[in-house]
Structure formats: C-alpha cells, structure tokens
Design a protein that fits this description.
Strand content of chain B: 15-25%
Oligomer: heterodimer
Number of strands of chain A: 26
Number of helices of chain B: 5
CATH architecture of one domain in chain A: 2-Layer Sandwich
CATH superfamily of chain B: Response regulator
Radius of gyration of chain A: 78 Å
Structural class of chain A: alpha+beta
Helix content of chain A: 40-55%
Number of helices of chain A: 20
Order of helices and strands of chain B: EHEHEHEHEH
CATH class of chain B: Alpha Beta
Number of domains of chain B: 1
Chain lengths: 763, 121
C-alpha cells in the first residue's frame, strides 16, 4: 500500500464514519419523530371520526325514534278490532309524513311482531315477511343502525330498525330504509390530514367473523360490503379494530398489501371497527428526502475527503519520492544530487538536513577518494615491489638445483620449484594441492616406504623444528616413474606466531655425489693399497739395513738410512691420515662400541709410546681414577685419539719435559686430560687448531714432519662418539687438551669404514 | 726348521720376506699368485702361511677359504698381511679363518718376525 493509498483510506475513515453514524442516528430519530407525529395525527383523526360516527349514529337513531315513538302510531297499532285497511292507511299517512320530514328516509316500513310488513311508504312492500332479516331481529330489541346493504345500483343503503312499544308491550317494529348513509359516508370521505394515500375504513363483522367493509374505500369505490379481510390476518389494522383493540400500528399492512401507519378504533355502539391509516411511503416522504440528502452529503464529503487526502498525500509523498530518488542516485555514486523542497514544515527541515548530510557526505567522500587514491598509489607501489620480490624469489627458487616444496598446515603442497618437479617427474602445477607424501615418496635404500611416523617431513612438522637428513641415512625417494633416487632431505617448519603453518622441504638427488663419493673412496682405497706396498718395502728394507741384516753400517750410513726410514714413516702417516680423513668426510667412520676397560686402554697406549718418550727423556705423570666403570666405546678409535694427542704432546715437548695424563669421572662423563710443557699454540692461531692441515706457525720449522690432520681427526672421532674436546694453551708454557666421553656409550654406526688400526689384529 | 709359505705378488716385498725370514731361521717358499699356492703346497707343507689379499689370478680371500676348507691345510695358521685397512676386510678374513691380520706399513719388519714367532711357538 503506498502512502497515498494509506492517506486516502485514512481520510475516508475519518470523514465518512461520523457522517454515516450521524446520518443513521438522525435518520432513525427523525423517522421516530415522523412516525410519532403521523401516528398521533392519525389517532387524532380516528378520535374525531369516532366521535363523528357516534354522533351520526345517534342522529340516525334519533330520527328513527321520532318515527317509532309517534304516539299516533302506537295508538293505531294497539287499537283492537281495527279494520286493517283503515289502519294501514292511517299508518301509511303517518309514515309518509315522517318520510317527508326527513329527507334521507327512502322508505319506512312497519312490521308486526311476526315480521310481516303491515304498512309501508312503498305499497309494494306490504305483506313481505322480514322475519329472518337481521334488522328485524335487532329491531325487536332496540333501535339500531347496523344493517347495511347494497341496492340495485350497488349503493350503500342502511336499515334503521327499532321496536314500537305500547305500554311496555312490543306492538311492532319500525324499519327505516335510509337511501344512503350520507352522514356517515361523508365522514369517511373526509381525507383532510391524510394526504394522498390516507383513508378511513369502517367495517363490521360478517357472519363468519371476518371484517366486511361497510364503506367504499378511497382506492376501491366498490369496496363497501364486498371486500372482506380475513379475521386471521392480524396484521391488518381493521382486524385489530374489530378485535376492540384501539391501538397505533406502525408496521401494519393493509388490505392492498401496502405498508401503512394506522390508528384503530372500535365503535361500541354499532360493533364496527374504524381504521385511520396512511401509507408509510407517503408518511415517510420527508424521510426519503432526508435519506437522499444524507447520501448526497456522504458522497460529496467522500469526494472532498479523497481530494484532500490526495492533495495531502501529494504534499507529503512528493518530497519523500524526491528524497527517495535523490538517495538512490547518491547511492549510485552521484554525490552532486540535491533535494529541492522549500517548505517550513518538517519535510522542509528534513530536506535541509538531507542536503546538509549529502553535502557532508560528498566532502568526506571526495576526501576519502583522495586518500583512497593515495593509498592506491602506495598499494600499487607495494604490489610492484612485492611482484618484483616475487619475481626475484621465483627466479631464485627456479635457479636452485635442490628441490623445494612448501606445504600448508595440512601438508598440502602450495609451492614447487622446477627442480623438485623435474626430479619427481611431475608437472609443477599438477603437484599443487596434493599431500606432499603422495608426491615425495620417501623410502630407504631398498625402495621400501618410510612410514609417516618416521618421515622427517612429518616429524619436522610435528616437532616444529628443522630436521635434516644426511647422505649416510641412506634415504631415497621414488619419482613418478618409480625411479629410486638417493637423496638428502631438509624439512623446516614455517612458524607464524606460535604455530607451524606449513613446512618447507628441500631435497637433493645425491646420486651423482654418491657416485663421486664412491669413486673417491675407491680411488683412495686403491691408492692407499698401491702406495702402501712400496712404502712397506722401503720401510722393511730400511729397517733391515738398520738392523745390520746387510752387515753393520757405519755411522754415516746408518744416519742416511734413518733419514730414509723416517721420511718413509711420514709418508705412511700421511697415507693413513688421508684415508681416515676421507672416511670422516664421507661419514664413514664406524663407531663400533664394546665394553672397554678405559684404564687398560690408556695404559697400553702409554706403553706403546714409551720408546718415543724415553728418546726425548720426557717424564710421564699418569693419574687414572681407579673406580672407572667399563664403558661402551670403540676402543680402536679412542686409542687413535690418545695416540694422536700423546704423540703431539711428545713431539712438541722440549726434552725432559713433563707429560701429565689424568683420567677422571665427572658424573656421567669420563674426562681425559693431556698436558704438556711444550711450545704452546699462538693465541691468534688457537681458533684454527682443529682445522684440517693446520700446523702451528711456531713449530713448522722446528718439526717439518706432521700432516696437520691429527687434531682434525681427533675432534671428528670424539664428536662422533658423543663427546667434546677443548683445550687451553699458552705460548712457551704448554698445552692442555681435555676430552669427554659419555659413560653410557655410543650408538652403533653401520655401513661405514673403520679407521686404519694402528696395531695388528690378533685372535 | 720351521717352514713358511709367503703369498706375495710384489717382488720387492717378497724379497724382503725371503731375506729377513731366511735370516731369522725359517725355510721360505714364495707364491707370486693365487694359483701357485696349491702347486707349492703339493710338495711343501708349511708351518705358517703369510697371505696377501690382493693377488693376481686368485685373490687372498678365495685362497683362505680353500685352505680352511681343505682338511690337509686347515690347521696351518694363516697370517693375513695386507694393505687393505677396511674393517670389512679384516672381519671377512677373520671369519674365513685367518689367525691374524697385519697391515704391512704399520708393522716394522722386526715386529713382523716377533709376530711370526708367536704363531710358531
């Protein structure tokens, strides 16, 4: 429903309802008044008519009496033996006299007590018997005017009859036939005060008790003595009147079937009913006008109400429609729109506020636009930077030879570089969205899948820490074509805040490295074998010369042979160390732990080096904790460590220096300490001590022999065994090395190569 | 006189063994390749066999396996003298029944004699 319809509806309600109510109220009140007025008028008329009729009846009766009580008549009638003809003539004379005196008398008859006409103004009537006639019956008793009849011309006639008495005896009945009942009929025909439809009805009861009109009606001239209204028709006023009910009727229906207002009277004297009535239609004629007036005024009011409503609606809705349109345009972005409503009412103020608002909106919008465009420029710049960065990153990623795969928190692949796709035999775009394990299938060297629980990628994600595998872990992956490729993996969780939101997996196909490594190992192995054979020959022949197997050498000869021997030893050391370094670097040191008596191991090693110590006249100071438990270490490797450290201590001590060896237990560690009083290591070089091929600048000239590989090897062994090594050194004072080993031992490392043992195996 | 069979393909080393061990009072026979071993053993029953591993024609492991599988020779102690230093080689030799394992460059010739004597006691 639009506003306009609502307003029209409202106005119609407001304006029409009172009018309709007032109309109905006034109409019904007026109708009541009119009815009252009409009815009281009818009653008045009825009263008057009743009086008049009674008067008329009385008048007629008086006239009758003037005849019946003529003394002459009595006397004649009572005279005995009177000659009938004479008597009749005398009576006739009286009757004619009476007839002539009263003009309305048509005929006068004298009946004897038996009903025979004995004398009459009309001579033809004499001798007729009226014994059965009503007027005779009634006339015997008293004077009456009740017997009406229609003559040959259907005019209403009435019999007036009454008894003739002589000294109390009934001597005859006088009957007057009145030519008309003019005095009554004229009354009935007096319609004054009854308008066009009003009439007066007079009726008596017929033999059946029904109402019989005794006068003509206004609308039916021949109604008299012909029209009968059934006694059962109680709605008919005449029925009521004859029932002796003197009432006012407002809902009656008359003999014509028309609705009428009526007043009824009962005329006791003659047992007649009198009805004065008027058609409702006429009585309520003024009401009809009133009704029309009301209808017209309602219609006119409606029209005015609708017009007013429309006008008002127009006034109210037009600005609203305008506001709506403007709002809609503003919403579409046209900020220049203004509402053009000039009025001092609320709508006007609304329009002003609206304009102010849209103005403000426009200003803030334009400033917003400015800001947005600034931000957009910044954003574009940023986007460009990011794109640049992305391009760089992509180039970087693509140029990396290692496979790089990034996953989201559900382990689904979100980024793949070309190398990864190539290695795995996929199209990079096809890998996106897949679970990483379905693409990067990690296996052991035999191609058996690594279960997710042990998969480094999954572990890394779970533990939120970086996990890296090494070549010696022997891991492989299978490509899409099921090619098995050895690889190393590195899985790094992407941490945002406190949560891992993904993983970056980097992996590398190490087939080539493996090949190279194998070749290198084979080469070194071969070289060592091939080198060792001549070295052994040189060694043994030199020793045989030294031992005098070829005859005793002179001093100079012996010196030369010693030089050959020592140089050869250096060569052997170098070969051994190179071999060991090779193994360390390829991760092939075998840690082969056994329950080891640490004290015994140290003692044996010390004894092994006894010759060298004695040669330099050095002094041992050995202190071993007597309560050391047997620990699980690789005795060959740890022996190698001691030999290296002690050989260094011996080599770099001045003659007759002190070498201290202390083995002690500290909680779960065995700490070994080796101290010499040698050259010491220059401070600025200390950080290089464990580097490959490092040799102290201060001892290189003094002791040209030495490979620079010993400490490097020692550190590698200790750390591989789960221990640590550290030292303290002062130039010219000496050096102390400490290393720790865990009491609870080592893990076994397989698939590796042990170090060259320094002593024979013996069963 | 104790007899020693030396299986060594390198002439110089073979010569060193011969000179030193003969001087030390042993009767020496040298087999220069794998196939010679069985020929020599037909006529020469040693008290000790010194066995190199890398040999032409038949390698030391194979020879060791045959010796220890032959009831005639299985009780002759075998000292493997090699330049191979891998733990695998050592383990393999011991498993095949070798009685000792030395790496040539790690042992002086006099120590070698001491070691040999310890096997021949």
């Amino acid at each position: 429903m639009t506003l306009r319809q609502k307003l029209v509806f409202l106005f119609l309600h407001i304006s029409l309802l009172p009018i309709i109510f007032i109309s109905i109220f006034v109409y019904s009140a007026t109708k009541e008044r009119v009815t009252e007025q009409v009815v009281s008028q009818l009653e008045l008329i009825a009263q008057i008519q009743e009086n008049r009729i009674n008067t008329a009846i009385d008048q007629n009766l008086e006239r009758l009496v003037t005849v019946s009580r003529r003394s002459a008549l009595n006397e004649i009638l009572v005279k005995e033996n009177y000659q009938t003809t004479q008597k009749n003539l005398e009576i006739k004379k009286i009757l004619e006299e009476a007839k002539s005196s009263i003009r309305s008398f048509n005929d006068i008859l004298i009946l004897d007590v038996d009903g025979y006409v004995i004398a009459a103004t009309n001579p033809n009537a004499v001798g007729t018997n009226y014994e059965n006639e009503e007027f005779f019956q009634k006339g015997r008793v008293e004077e009456n005017v009740e017997s009406f009849y229609l003559d040959e011309n259907y005019d209403v006639r009435v019999y007036l009859s009454g008894p003739i008495h002589a000294q109390e005896d009934l001597v005859g009945i006088v009957v007057v036939i009145e030519s008309d009942v003019e005095n009554i009929l004229s009354l009935i025909k007096d319609y004054s005060g009854l308008g066009k439809s009003g009439e007066i009805l007079l009726a008596r009861r017929d033999l059946n008790g029904n109402a019989l009109f005794i006068t003509p009606s206004r609308f039916h001239a021949n109604a008299a003595l012909r029209r009968i209204v059934s006694k059962n028709n109680r709605n008919e006023p005449i029925t009521q009147a004859l029932s002796k009910n003197e009432i006012l009727l407002t809902n009656a229906v008359d003999y014509r079937g028309k609705r009428v207002l009526a007043a009824t009277r009962y005329i006791d004297k003659s047992d007649w009913g009198l009805v004065v009535k008027i058609d409702e239609e006429e009585a309520f004629e003024p009401l009809k006008q009133l009704k029309d007036y009301f209808i017209y005024s309602t219609l006119i009011t409606s029209v005015f109400a609708i017009l007013t409503a429309l006008y008002l609606a127009q006034n109210i809705t037009n600005p609203i429609i305008q506001l709506t349109e403007v709002t809609s345009k503003i919403r579409q972005g046209d900020m220049r729109q203004k509402v053009n409503i000039k009025s001092n009412d609320e709508i006007g103020r609304l329009a002003d506020s609206f304009n102010a608002m849209s103005n403000k909106l426009r200003k803030s919008y334009s400033s917003l636009e400015g800001k947005v465009s600034d931000k957009t420029i910044q954003l574009k710049k940023k986007i460009f930077e990011i794109q640049e960065q992305v391009a760089k990153d992509e180039a970087l990623l693509e140029s990396i030879g290692d496979g790089v795969i990034a996953t989201d928190s559900r382990q689904k692949i979100i980024l793949v570089n070309r190398a990864a796709a190539q290695m795995l035999g996929w199209q990079a775009k096809d890998m996106l969205g897949k679970i990483i394990y379905s693409v990067l299938k990690m296996t052991n060297s035999k191609g058996e899948a690594i279960p997710i629980k042990k998969n480094s990628i999954a572990l890394s994600f779970k533990s939120e820490s970086k996990i890296t595998t090494i070549a010696s872990d022997g891991l492989c992956f299978t490509s899409k074509k099921s090619t098995l490729l050895p690889a190393v993996f590195s899985a790094t969780p992407i941490i945002l805040g406190n949560y891992a939101i993904g993983t970056v997996v980097v992996f590398r196909d190490i087939t080539h490295e493996r090949d190279v490594d194998r070749m290198k190992t084979e080469f070194i192995s071969l070289a060592s074998h091939q080198l060792r054979t001549p070295l052994a020959a040189v060694k043994w022949f030199s020793q045989m010369l030294e031992s005098g197997d070829a005859g005793k050498l002179n001093k100079e000869q012996l010196n030369f042979v010693n030089n050959i021997s020592e140089s050869n030893e250096r060569m052997i050391d170098l070969t051994n160390n190179l071999l060991n370094i090779n193994r360390i670097e390829s991760g092939k040191i075998i840690i082969n732990p056994k329950q080891t008596d640490f004290e015994k191991l140290v003692t044996e090693t010390v004894n092994y080096l006894q010759n060298k110590v004695e040669k330099k006249e050095l002094v041992w100071k050995i202190k071993i904790d007597s309560n050391l438990p047997k620990i699980k270490i690789d005795p060959k490797l740890i022996r190698e460590v001691f030999i290296n450290l002690l050989s260094n201590a011996i080599k770099y001590s001045k003659n007759s220096g002190l070498i201290t060896v202390i083995i002690s237990r500290q909680e779960n560690l065995i700490i070994s300490q080796i101290t010499d009083e040698g050259y010491g290591i220059p401070g600025n070089e200390q950080k290089h001590v464990f580097q490959k091929f490092y040799r102290g600048a201060n001892i290189v000239n003094e002791h040209p022999e030495g490979t620079g590989l010993g400490l490097y090897l020692v550190k590698a062994i200790i750390e591989s065994s789960g221990g640590n090594i550290w030292f303290k050194s002062e130039l010219g004072v000496g050096t102390t090395f400490w290393f720790s080993l865990p009491i609870y031992g080592d893990r076994i490392k397989r698939d590796g190569v042990s170090l060259i043992p320094s002593k024979i195996e013996k069963k | 006189m104790k007899k020693i069979l030396v299986v060594e393909d390198d002439n110089y080393l073979a010569n060193a063994y011969r000179v030193k061990l003969t001087k030390a009072g042993f009767e020496i026979k040298i087999a220069y390749d794998g196939e010679e071993v069985s020929k020599i053993l037909d006529t020469f029953m040693p008290n000790l066999i010194i066995l190199d591993l890398v040999l032409p024609k038949k390698d030391g492991f194979k020879i060791l396996e045959e010796l220890k599988g032959d009831p005639r020779y299985k009780n002759i102690p075998v000292l493997v003298s090699s330049n191979l230093g891998q733990q695998e080689d050592i383990n393999k030799s011991m498993k095949l029944g070798a009685n000792g394992y030395i790496i040539k460059t790690d042992l002086s010739i006099n120590e070698l004699v001491v070691t040999i004597n310890s096997f021949l006691k």
